[in-house]
Amino acid sequence: MHWIVLSILIDIQKKAFSIFYGYLIKELPGLLTDLLIHSILDKLTFVDDTLYSFYHQFF
Fold first, then answer.
1. For the purposes of burial, counting CB atoms within 10 Å of the CB of 32, is it exposed (0-12), middle (13-18) or buried (19 or more)?
2. What is the C-alpha to C-alpha distance for residues 31 and 33, in angstroms, rounded to an integer?
3. pLDDT tens digits, residue range 12-59?
4. Quick check: helix, strand or coil at residue 54?
5. Residue 11 located in a structural domain
6. Residues 6+ apart with CB under 8 A from 2
7. CA atoms in the 13 A half-sphere facing the CB of 29
8. In this structure, is residue 3 part of a structural domain?
9. Over 9-42, what HEC string results?
10. Is position 44 within any domain?
11. Domain-embedded: residue 52
12. SS3 59
């Protein structure tokens, strides 16, 4: 009885992992693109703020 339950749980876990990894592989390019866009925007914002403060120091 114990082994049957264990094998069912392992089977469920394998299915869950395959579903999860399938979703991850499908969605990963979009997630990476979002992260890349956000990091680029953060850098641009930082440059913008730096230039702004630099400009206001002298003018």
1. exposed
2. 5
3. 888 888 888 888 788 888 888 888 888 888 888 877 788 778 777 776
4. helix
5. no
6. none
7. 1
8. no
9. HHHHHHHHHHHHHHHHHHHHHHHHHHHHHHHHHH
10. yes
11. yes
12. coil
Q: Within 13 A of 15's CA, how many CA atoms are on the CB side?
A: 6
Lookup: tokens for 53: 């403060």
| Structural domain that includes position 49 | 31-58
Question: How many domains would you assign to the chain?
Answer: 1
At 20, the amino acid letter reads F
CA distance 35 to 41: 10
pTM: 0.43
